[in-house]
Design a protein that fits this description.
Blueprint lengths: L4 E10 L21 E3 L6 H16 L16 H10 L1 E15 L2 E9 L2 E6 L4 E5 L2 E9 L6 E12 L1 H11 L7 E12 L9 E4 L4 E8 L3 H11 L5 E6 L3 E3 L6 H5 L4 H13 L19 E5 L2 E7 L2 E6 L2 E5 L4 E5 L4 H7 L12 E5 L1 H9 L2
Helix pairs in contact: 1-2
Length: 371
Amino acid sequence: MSLLVKGFSLLFEPLSFGNYKWQGAFGPSLRGPQAYSRSSPLPLPSTMAGAVAAAAITALGGNLCRDECRGSSYPYCSVAGTLEEKLCRGARLRGPFYYVEGGGSRVACMYHTENSLICIDDSGKAGIVGVAQLQSVGIALDSLSRSALEGYIYTLLSVDLTATAKRVAERFELPHVKRYGVLVEVHGECGTAERVDGAIVVLGGEQRPHRLHVLNSQPLTELLKAVLERAGGDCYYWHIATPILLCRDTMPEECREALGSPRELLEKCLVEKVMGLKPCPRGRLVPEGGRVRFSAIGLGYSHCSWHQGRWAGGKRKYCAAIMPGWGIIAERVADWESWYVSGVGSYSQLGWGTIAPLPLDFLESLRCTDE
């Protein structure tokens, strides 16, 4: 592979409504809570990593299920191996994010809540934008007679990323929307990715189609550089953009011991041990009004699970996770980009544990625009 660039981005333009379910099962033929599906604003990192690897295999050839991964305990063995071979040496994905471009301006957004995104633009303006949603109600059909099954009514709450792009454009005064979609930054020693440009890929369990575009830039990295160069103060607000995985088999011993105490987990594990940062001299670790959220989250679906001597599909394991949408206040560092590119927690090379440093004064502007 010819080494050409230090990275690029992949923009997934939605061709339909998005349905990115993070937790729980859903099916039209199920009853109870499983008959309701609510989409998160953005897909999980595992969804994006798998889609990128599949697109690379389709465009460049090869097999997604790799021989060296037979019997491997690494849940992303085939995906990570494909990214390393086909796209970048030392490939590290950041995101996913939401991205809107138009009129010579760019806006990059990160997860905030199930209904909203935190966005920043080229000028350093920050704000919270609500995600447009669409609710549809349906009923399950008998597979043979195609008649309705009594009692099997399901509800699907999807995200409308096209309408969301218009909201972002209005909030940040873009004259028009040139392109938009779900964005993943790819960092590493990368060869050309032009052959995946224009590919049609599907994301999420509902198999929603997206068109893949290659951008020769890394928008969020560039926006953060511009914003932080103008920022003063001795502390940053480190926003957690994607779930931080705390899988026991990859977790430092200090983190395992602190699992029962959220405060110790934050101070001794996340900030001091994993990130290597010092708390802000002001003493507050979590911003006022911030809420630390822990959950168990699945690592996604694998098409390359080695089972009884053959490849088979199946769900990956579950891990404890610090959920995104909030952040911590910690010291300002000169080489913030290395923290951002490396990520935090287990399997961070695939986008899990993406953290983005922002100036502390952003917190006040975000409070003013919060829903």
